[in-house]
Design brief:
By secondary structure, the chain is α/β, with parallel strands linked by helices. Helix content is 34%, strand content 21%. It has a single domain, classed as Rossmann fold (3-Layer(aba) Sandwich), CATH 3.40.50. It is globular, with a radius of gyration of 17 Å.
């Protein structure tokens, strides 16, 4: 499912970041641990194909990402990967429904109204379907971002620091929501975090060294 071997990446300014070798199998939940600045977000962006020109091997579904063209990578990412960023990147001018419709549209997939209904209902957002993003609470917007990430039934879900700014109650709610959604769709879940509260929630863990 996910295989990282001898992976390193270097920004234009700075030393190369070396990542540990690891694999994550289909349907497995895994924490990517490390202090701020250890390269967690960089690794997620590499795994999601948002950063390129790495050294080593990085395979998703037995596909070496470096071998894909930009167009092929866009399609591959849209059809296989759901990404939950630290910021939700929702389009404020659009409704919740229109934001979700962007996911299959950009992946070249058919837009299915029934699927949008299913996902929104599962996340307790059915009544917010026609609401604009600016009308949502922070927690509701976060759930919309999760809905968008899982709408295409991705085989992999990446979540970047989804609980770092949350109190204990909402931290518990969000991590269980992510795990439940991943289980529902038999998706692999990889959560990058420095939040110590999550270590007891997911036992499979990969630790990055501080740079």
């Amino acid at each position: 499912m996910i295989s990282v071997q001898n992976l390193s990446f270097q920004y234009a300014a700075g030393n190369a970041i070396q990542f540990p070798d690891f694999t994550v199998t289909r349907g497995e939940h895994c924490l990517l641990l490390g202090e701020s600045g250890s390269g967690k977000t960089t690794l997620l962006h590499l795994l999601g194909g948002l950063l390129r020109h790495y050294s080593g091997s990085l395979k998703i579904e037995d596909t070496e990402l470096a071998q894909l063209s930009e167009a092929s990578l866009d399609r591959f990412r849209g059809q296989n990967i759901g990404f939950i960023f630290q910021r939700n990147h929702l389009i404020n001018a659009l409704t919740v429904e229109k934001n979700l419709m962007m996911a299959p549209y950009l992946a070249g997939l058919k837009i299915e109204s029934e699927r949008i209904t299913e996902v929104l209902s599962g996340l307790g957002l059915a009544e917010k379907r026609k609401s604009r993003v600016t009308q949502l609470s922070h927690g509701q917007a976060q759930r919309v971002a999760i809905a968008r990430a899982v709408l295409n039934k991705p085989s992999i879900i990446f979540a970047d620091e989804p609980t770092s700014a949350l109190d204990d109650k909402n931290c518990e709610r969000v991590i269980h929501l992510l795990m439940d959604v991943a289980n529902q769709h038999q998706s692999t879940l990889l959560v990058a975090t420095h939040d110590q509260r999550l270590k007891d929630k997911i036992s499979n863990q990969v630790r990055l060294s501080s740079l």
